[in-house]
Amino acid sequence: MKLRKFIDPLPIMETKKPEKRARRNSYYEVEMKEFTQKLHRDLPPTRLWGYDAQFPGPTFEVKQGETAQVKWMNQLPERHILPVDTSIHNLASQPIVRTVTHLHGSVTKPESDGYPEAWFTKDFRQTGPVFTRKVYEYPNNQRATTLWYHDHAMGITRLNVYAGLVGAYIIRDKKESNMDLPSGEYEIPLLLLDRSFHADGSLKYPTQPEDASPELPNPSIVPAYLGETILVNGKVWPYKEIEPRKYRFRVINASNTRTYQLYFDNNHPILQIGSDGGLLRKPIELRSLTLEPAERADIIIDFSQLKGKTLHLKNDLGDGAAPEDETHDVMQFRVNKRKNGKDTSKIPNSLSTIKSLKGNQVKAIRKLKLIGSEDEFGRPLLLLDNKKWHDPITEKPRLNTTEIWEFMNVTNFTHPIHLHLVQYQVLDRQPFDLTKFNEDGSMVYTGPATPPLPNERGWKDTIAAPSGQLTRVIAKFSPYTGDYVWHCHILEHEDYDMMRPFKVIKADEE
Ligand code: C2O
Ligand code: CU
Ligand code: CU
């Protein structure tokens, strides 16, 4: 079904209001509900799941150091709005509608991190095998940045997120607030999502790939999914009327599988000031910005010379794109007159200090293969180090130690690799031959290691690990011990075992 572009204005998510707020802590309640919402003027209302019955959910705004308690409540009906594959992870024995919320990029104790098996059903009537607590607590003791929250329930994350369980979460600090970056109505979160629809407005999501064998018990592995339309803040291909001045956009790729390569049709510069873990050292000027699933970019766009012009934010699909693919468009900006006088915002040349984690303090180097495999029915799977979710924990960093994790991608495509608990730094990438390996299984490098891209030289929690490359990151595992996860953030991969537990152990633990 064909939808007209740029006929709906860009929505801005509501700011989440706390039930209670004191100086150093706040308490929120969020209900996950089923509801319908208009996602495009010509599309009948879409049945969705959302936090506080909104899609995307409300945006949290917290101060650094403010403890935010959130009671995430499941008020969803008993039927999933998308077909659930119960042939994995013993899901047949579990309730279908279960949720658990994860605050992506946050440094949080394990019991508030949204462990995939810490799920719960309506009114907490039933809980998962490792259920933790009803009220989550986020210390927000980390750099000011853009986080996002989303569902993380075991084996159905792709479906719960696709149904609409996503939202933005902003941590602010004094230093940044004193910087005169564009703020107020000139600071706008842009949550990028891709979805497909049936003519009646309902969400379209495949139940099985075209080439799946009908003999399988439940042939519904969807190896990746790209929606046919692009939504920003919950509207399909919206437009935004803006003033000729600087804007700050906090861009979040909240899509299941899709990677974006964003650019403006007039080649207008994109000034990136922040990444997943907050401000970069200095602004980086780009003509094209790549965002893998779950990656965020804090960007400044200066429209001051563009009064009266119309710009389009585009998505480069590469040469292989099908002619009917409409997802090369993202949204439109219409630059109007100035409303509020002069633009006094400033972008300093030096944004923040970032100390490089030191290689000489490294306690462990983990070589981790991203590799193709099969499940018990012969269906293709992608695995981390050839292990499935239920295999024993192998990654056990000690508290307060620094480790290097090396992602050796022997599959044919890029996987965005995410670790919970930590913000890491990217060390380098080195290409190797995908067709021949040394006798001991080590790779044959085909070129030197290259440093991360300029806009990757800040704190990251999700990073592209391209095919045929060794991508190395360095992280310090602190300040909490306990059970966390790491995974590919392509949700269709994550649900089918491209996710592993890891456990931060005490200094003297075995
Ligand atoms: Cu954005 Cu483990 O998640
Ligand atoms: Cu996360
Ligand atoms: Cu993947």
UniProtKB/TrEMBL annotation:
Residues 45-175, 245-305, 385-505 form the Plastocyanin-like domain. One of its GO terms (molecular function) is copper ion binding. CDD domains: CuRO_1_BOD_CotA_like, CuRO_2_CotA_like, CuRO_3_CotA_like. It holds the Pfam family Cu-oxidase. Belongs to the multicopper oxidase family. This is Multicopper oxidase domain-containing protein.
